[in-house]
Amino acid sequence: MPSNDRENIMTATKRLLEEILGANEIEIDDIAAIFFTTTPDLNAEFPAAATRELGWPQHIALLCGHEMDVPGSLPHCLRILMLVNTERKAEQITHIYLGEAKKLKEDKLALSGGKA
Question: Could you tell me the domains of the chain?
């Protein structure tokens, strides 16, 4: 995410939510809760507010928090953990990494010997 301002946080959050839903064929009515985290350098807006702008139902539980401030970690990073009612097995879920966060996936692949 280029900078800590409301517009960037909202745009990035909406894009990530839409990518997660599309890649996993998730229906909004199947979402139980969503946890949003940002690195401490992103605090201009609650990422959860993006769901309201998208018109998502009020009954989805939403929570925002900050990631640990680990020296050398990726700055300006938004993460989403979505709890969904699904018949899919864990290995059938597609995890989405956008922008600079793609480096996190590469690190994950290297640590697992190429298995995401």
Answer: 6-111 (3.30.1330.40)
